[in-house]
Amino acid sequence: MASESVHSEKGIVLDGGLSNALEDRGHDLSDALWSARLLKDAPEEIAAVHRAYFKAGAMVATTASYQASVAGFAQAGVGVAEAERLITSSVRIAREVRDEFGGDRLVAASVGPYGAILADGSEYRGRYGVSAAALRDFHGPRLELLIGAGPDLLAIETIPDVDEAEVLVQLLQELDFPAWLSYSAADGQTRAGQPLSAAFALATIDQVVAVGLNCCAPEEVAPAIALATKPAVVYPNSGETWDAGTRSWTGSSATLTNLAPAWAAAGAAYIGGCCRVGPDDIRVLASALSDV
């Protein structure tokens, strides 16, 4: 397994959303590859976002591999060898920026759910209608590519379904590599409707160093920490709400930063942000957690 530095009993500040930070820098991420497209078209912009988060106080860079897969790149006309190079480059980019800063900073290789490749919202529903063998065939080679590129751990994130998590946990045990396991959730359940207690119960293997939630409303976090079977990892969305009528966000990301100290006090080991959380928010979050 990788370094014991990935284990933590106190709040380590994660980064925020990669896609929104890239959009704030003027990039259109509306195609199916999402932020992974910039691994090919503008890798220096991904590096710039990692750099901004580290400067803001983040101690972990989450790579631009969430939606990166050989199959996904193939749909965009990218050959297998080049797709594999791009996937591993996500780790290299983050490592190079991490090395500029030194210290105890970590690189977490992002592993998004199978539903992300479908680009149809399936990642927020689960129950894809595919077999466990198909999920294994999808995730296994990608995990091997990412691990081979040398991250400190994997960020297995936005998993909507216990069925998919079971496959990923088995692969982690076989590959013997540390990871956090983070579900997307609503109303105390996975997006597929399973109890979080059952979802977290899968995290008994040594390779899972933390379990929790991401890409959820901030109010989902505290009850989840209480259920966590390992140190908790939590990085919800900003707390803003999408208004479909005006096609704009309302509310404030202050919700996240106000709640984060209580999450740390309750035992969250890794705390950051997901959608609509940017470097400025992480700067405030890091400051709020500095005295916890």
From TrEMBL:
Transmembrane segments: none annotated. Its cofactor is Zn(2+). It comes from the Bacteria. One of its GO terms (biological process) is methionine biosynthetic process. The keyword Metal-binding applies. Keywords: Metal-binding, Methyltransferase, Transferase, Zinc. Its EC number is 2.1.1.10. GO terms for molecular function: S-adenosylmethionine-homocysteine S-methyltransferase activity; zinc ion binding. Gene3D superfamilies: Homocysteine-binding-like domain. This is Homocysteine S-methyltransferase. It comes from Kribbella antibiotica.
